[in-house]
């Protein structure tokens, strides 16, 4: 939207430059530009006016209010040169003039080449309705321009105000700088504090690791001492126990003096107790040997069918409960595995033995299953089963599931079996539920380790 011009004036002589400047400021104030913007547009105007007066001999100056496409209002000043601009171009001596206003350019308007500048009117200014513009036009038409001296005095006071403004801005800048420096010092102090804390934490972590290392060395040496102790004690115990068994056998020998029935019963008790003690001592020795790492598997191609056949034979003698069937399935051929035959047989015998011990009816079964590069040797029973909370504990030395199902033993069989399975490059796992029996699975690589 464009209104009628607010004010028009002619620029023809030097003195008019002052008048253009003065009127420019007056119009800017009337439409509501801020104080500094009034000075800016007045300064830009007097610069352009001087150029045009000297370059083409003068211009007609037209002030108007226009609306931009975004709806914001602008104060627009057109300077229509009295004779054409050379090359229809106009360039103020420096970009400084252009920076004083929002736009400064040469446009073609109504057949003329016009130098046009504009400045946005702030939204806080009083609304410029057509009535208000009309009012302003009347007001500006009546006002009489001041003298050159008055204009100079105004310019001086504006200069002083501008200098004041610059000084207060410089003071403000110095204050901000000071604040910034203080903040920097604070940030730096915080940074140092954090760095110190971090270093301290690091030192703590390092110390903690050193302690952990030390503890694990201690643990390893404690475990080694334990194995050594077990091995030594068992070894020392074996000789006297064997002697007791031998002597007891001598006592009941037909060549010895006859014993009373009661003496014979007691010697029998001595023999069976000593035999139990010997098997405990032997188990302890086996375990200590496996733990110490001194047990070297004797690797060879082994036929699982032969191993299974042997187990079938030896365990048949053990298994005396008629309600329990022992089934050793025939592995499908080829059933070869690279392993230590004796150690593998020991593991399976142990598991089958346990199965028979903890099963009162149903069956205990051993089968072999080939899956990919490994063999699974599975011992299942229909016995008492093991509650989940004991699934790992029964692999600890001397651990036995508490409760009525306890039927003697040492608690060393499973830890030993697992040791051996690991030594053979495999694993020993359990799945079981109370009342539903147990399944122990030995998984071994078919080609050894
Ligand atoms: P032992 O059989 O000499 O007690 P093991 O280490 O072989 O020692 O077994 C530890 C415990 O695990 C046994 O005392 C028993 O409580 C439990 N257990 C082992 N095998 C079975 C099984 N097949 N069924 C039920 N419980 C079992």
SSE layout and pairing:
Elements lengths: L6 E5 L2 H18 L3 H22 L2 E9 L5 E9 L13 H6 L2 E7 L2 E9 L9 H13 L5 H105 L8 H32 L7 E4 H15 L5 E5 L7 E4 L1 H17 L4 E10 L2 E8 L31 H11 L3 E6 L5 E8 L4
Parallel strand pairs: 7-9
Antiparallel strand pairs: 1-2, 2-3, 3-5, 4-5, 6-8, 9-10, 10-12, 11-12
How would you sum up this structure, described in words?
26% of the residues are buried. It is rod-shaped, with a radius of gyration of 55 Å. The chain is α+β, with helices and mostly antiparallel strands. Strand 2 and strand 3 form a beta hairpin. The protein contains 9 helices and 12 strands. The site of adenosine-5'-diphosphate has 17 residues, from helix 8 and helix 9.
Short structural summary:
With 449 residues, the protein is an alpha+beta fold. Helix content is 53%, strand content 19%.
SSE-based structural type: alpha+beta
Distance between the termini: 93 Å
Strand content: 15-25%
Ligands and ions found: adenosine-5'-diphosphate
Q: In total, how many beta strands?
A: 12
Computed over alpha carbons, the radius of gyration is 55 Å
Question: What's the main sheet like?
Answer: 5 strands, antiparallel
Q: In DSSP terms, counting alpha (H) and pi (I) runs of 4 or more, how many helices?
A: 9
Stretches with pLDDT under 50, minimum 5 residues? none
Calculate the mean pLDDT score and round it.
89
Secondary-structure element pattern, one letter each: EHHEEHEEHHHEHEEHEEHEE
With strands numbered from the N-terminus, the spatial order across the biggest sheet is 1-2-3-5-4
Gross geometry: rod-shaped
What level of helicity do the residues show?
40-55%
């Amino acid at each position: 939207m464009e209104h009628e011009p607010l004010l028009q004036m002619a620029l023809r002589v030097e003195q008019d430059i002052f008048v253009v400047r003065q009127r420019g400021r007056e119009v800017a104030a009337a439409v509501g530009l801020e104080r500094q913007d009034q000075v800016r547009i007045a300064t830009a105007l007097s610069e352009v006016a001087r150029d045009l007066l000297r370059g083409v001999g003068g211009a007609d100056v037209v002030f108007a209010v226009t609306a931009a496409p975004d709806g914001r209002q602008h104060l627009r000043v057109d300077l229509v040169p009295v004779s054409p601009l050379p090359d229809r171009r106009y360039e103020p001596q420096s970009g400084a003039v252009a920076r004083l206003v929002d736009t400064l350019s040469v446009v073609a308007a109504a057949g003329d080449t016009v130098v046009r500048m504009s400045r946005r009117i702030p939204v806080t200014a009083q609304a410029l309705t057509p009535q208000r513009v009309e009012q302003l036009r009347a007001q500006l038409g009546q006002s009489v321009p001041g003298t050159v001296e008055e204009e100079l005095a105004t310019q001086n006071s504006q200069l002083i105000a501008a200098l004041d403004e610059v000084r207060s801005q410089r003071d403000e800048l110095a204050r901000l700088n000071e604040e910034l420096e203080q903040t920097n010092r604070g940030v730096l102090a915080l940074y140092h504090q954090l760095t110190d804390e971090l270093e301290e934490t690091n030192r703590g972590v390092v110390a903690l690791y050193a302690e952990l290392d030390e503890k694990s060395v201690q643990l390893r040496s404690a475990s080694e001492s334990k194995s050594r102790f077990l091995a030594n004690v068992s070894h020392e115990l074996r000789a006297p126990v064997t002697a007791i068994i031998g002597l007891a056998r001598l006592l009941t020998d037909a060549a010895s003096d006859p014993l009373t029935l009661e003496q014979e019963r007691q010697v029998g008790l001595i023999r069976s107790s000593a035999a139990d003690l010997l098997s405990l001592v032997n188990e302890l020795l086996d375990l200590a040997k496996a733990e110490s790492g001194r047990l070297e598997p004797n690797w060879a191609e082994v036929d699982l069918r032969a191993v299974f056949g042997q187990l079938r034979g030896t365990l048949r003698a053990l298994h005396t409960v008629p309600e329990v069937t022992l089934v050793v399935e025939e592995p499908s051929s080829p059933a070869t595995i690279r392993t230590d035959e004796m150690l593998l047989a020991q593991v399976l015998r142990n598991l089958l033995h346990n199965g028979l011990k903890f099963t009162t009816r149903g069956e205990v079964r051993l089968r072999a299953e080939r899956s990919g590069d490994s063999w699974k040797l599975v011992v299942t029973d229909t016995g008492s089963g093991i509650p989940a909370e004991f699934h790992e504990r029964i692999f600890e030395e001397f651990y036995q599931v508490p409760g009525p199902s306890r039927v003697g033993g040492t608690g060393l069989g499973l830890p030993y079996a697992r040791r051996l399975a690991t030594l053979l490059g495999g694993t020993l796992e359990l799945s079981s539920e109370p009342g539903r029996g147990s399944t122990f699975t030995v998984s071994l690589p078919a080609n050894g380790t």
